[in-house]
Amino acid sequence: MSIFEYNGSALIAMVGKNCFAIASDRRLGVQLQTIATDFQRIYKIHDKLYIGLSGLATDAQTLYQRLVFRHKLYQLREERDMKPETFASLVSAILYEKRFGPYFCQPVIAGLGDDDKPFICTMDSIGAKELAKDFVVAGTASESLYGACESMYKPDMEPEELFETISQALLSSVDRDCLSGWGGHVFVVTPTEVIERTLKGRMD
Predict the structure, then answer these.
(1) H or E segment at 28?
(2) What is the CB neighbour count within 10 angstroms for residue 169?
(3) Rounded Cα distance, 54 and 24, in Å
(4) What does the alpha-carbon distance between residue 5 and residue 86 come to, in Å, rounded to a whole number?
């Protein structure tokens, strides 16, 4: 078993019309043994920027603390929040710094940039970015997530439709992966509000 699969995870970010959604499962496991069913994988950087961290849970928490520290330094120096593109470059640089002993994490970054244009990207454990205009996925359930998102996604969805699409994609995908699941956590971010919802999924 790969170290990336040790705790199990499923993450998606999806773009809508001037909004985005980011969703994760809630299972924390040690291989096939479930430890917790309310694990948080999506972290808020600021009101319009979120990061999801799949992979090894301990590395994800360490990396998140480093990112919060670097973002606070940026806020103090620049007196403004970081743009999603800038933040993606920061995450990439931090991961590449440690390329010979990497954080076992695959981040998914989602944010609203200038003119409330949604930005999403993912990267591997050493910071190689993969940008997308529709959706990005990560985690042990990523293969089935790709299939579900390919069949359900359509451009320019309104927030409610986007929520429904990302939720159905997540729930149907984690059913096909025994290392992730046990419900879901969804954030839908628009220029004016953040909608946070918890999904109830199969508990087996």
Answers:
(1) strand 28-30
(2) 27
(3) 9
(4) 29
Using CB atoms within 10 Å of the CB of residue 137, give its burial: 0 to 12 exposed, 13 to 18 middle, 19+ buried: buried
Please, what sign has the CA dihedral across residues 39, 8, 36, 171? positive
Confidence band, pLDDT 50/70/90 cuts, at residue 1: confident
User: Maximum distance among all alpha carbons in the chain?
Assistant: 48
Domains of the chain and any CATH numbers: 3-199 (3.60.20.10)
Task: Give tens-digit pLDDT for 26-69.
Answer: 999 999 899 999 999 999 999 999 999 999 999 999 999 999 99
Listed residue (35, 32, 12) closest to 178, CA to CA: 32
Q: In whole angstroms, give the CA distance from residue 17 to residue 116.
A: 10
State the Cα–Cα distance between residues 55 and 38, nearest whole angstrom: 16
